[in-house]
Design brief:
- The protein contains eleven helices and 15 strands.
- The protein is an alpha/beta fold.
- It folds into two domains: 4-123, 3-Layer(aba) Sandwich (Rossmann fold); 124-284 and 312-336, Dihydrodipicolinate Reductase, domain 2, CATH 3.30.360.10.
- The strands form two sheets. Strands 14-13-12-11-7-10-9-8-15 form a nine-stranded mixed beta sheet. Strands 3-2-1-4-5-6 form a six-stranded parallel beta sheet, sandwiched between helices.
- It starts with a strand and ends with a strand.
Length: 337
Amino acid sequence: MEKLKVGIIGCGAISGVHADAIMSSENAVLTAVADIDQDVCKEAAQRYGCTGYTDYYDMIRSEAIDAVHICTPHYLHVPMAIQALKAGKHVMVEKPIAIGVEEAGELIEVAKAAGKHLGVAFQNRYNNTSKQAKALLEKKALGEIKGIKGLVTWYRDEAYYKDSSWRGRHDTEGGGVLINQAIHTLDLMQWFGGEMLAIKGNIDTRMLDTVIEVEDTADATVYYDKGAVGIFYATNCFTTNSSVEIEIHCEKGMLTIKDGELTKVCDGKKEMVVDDHHDGKYKSYWGDSHKKLIESFYKGIITDDETYYVTGEQSICALEMIKGIYASAKTGKKYYF
Ligand SMILES: NC(=O)c1ccc[n+]([C@@H]2O[C@H](COP(=O)([O-])OP(=O)(O)OC[C@H]3O[C@@H](n4cnc5c(N)ncnc54)[C@H](O)[C@@H]3O)[C@@H](O)[C@H]2O)c1
């Protein structure tokens, strides 16, 4: 079968992870890149030996590409994805799918109307630890879930925000630690815990208030449909990027994901279930699973089966949780889904 021809829009920090995954794929070839910054565009095109475009629309129009990966600032995800879908391309969009739930919904409708695949980069669902935890929960190996704890304590300084001016602003990033850093953990909390009834949370800007207009710290309580409780805390104000920590307390024991390991405690016995073999090539807090996610997306395209990847619809739940945290922070009341 002929390989899928793929283009990348946005050649910044995360794009190299996508390029490496595309170039090592048996199912795809990196055909073109686009970046509005001429130097960045030229450098990326040279590095990957492909055509470079400073106008992404020219790339979509001129190149015979089958799929695009959107690795641009958050506010550009929806308009770029819509243009690409309307031009007949499949779309893999970096997280978040959109800044708001409503525009994410519009994008999903456009993908359906175009009959094209739309995947979202929640790569942490493909970590060995996440997949194994999900499998244990599905077969109720430890009984029903009673509570889920998600902690994200990272470090982002002024330089990080100055480096890319779209970060730290409501109109271009769409939020702070919630929509950018902690969205993966929110996604896992809902993937593990299932349907949610309501959420209640708070946001604050504790350290970076002179640098950013969005929150650098947030917390929430999640009320799951079946009575379980979720506890969530995220901050960009710690002094280092600690491992994300997820604890799932079940009737018969506890599952913990931390430091790239899944451990199980049952009947007083602690057991290491699986680890994530992080090879250190990319930042540890990005994880190593983009390649698996991207390969699954291509399998979904080739077999026309969306069960292989994280769909637009699936990615909306985390966005809805964020919307709920912002809403309840304003009203002081629970936000019902
Ligand atoms: N999945 C993950 O773990 C992960 C990790 C890091 C970043 N991301 C996501 O990846 C996306 C990009 O983040 P980043 O850190 O690489 O940002 P970045 O600022 O480093 O790069 C963005 C690039 O987009 C380019 N760009 C801006 N406007 C453009 C336009 N109109 N046309 C073409 N190119 C344009 C910029 O010139 C820049 O090179 C964001 O959605 C971010 O949340 C995801």
